[in-house]
User: What shape does this take?
Amino acid sequence: MTHLIRLKKMINMAINMEWINTSPFKNYKIKIRHEEKAFITNSLKNIN
Assistant: This one.
């Protein structure tokens, strides 16, 4: 997802420099999901 955020910043910069007229991201909202990651430390103790 961070690639889309960087691309959107570059598109906005191009609009400000008048290289392009309209933004393709005009009606698009980037949604970032933060999920909690599970650790596998207990499973590794059982393997050894």
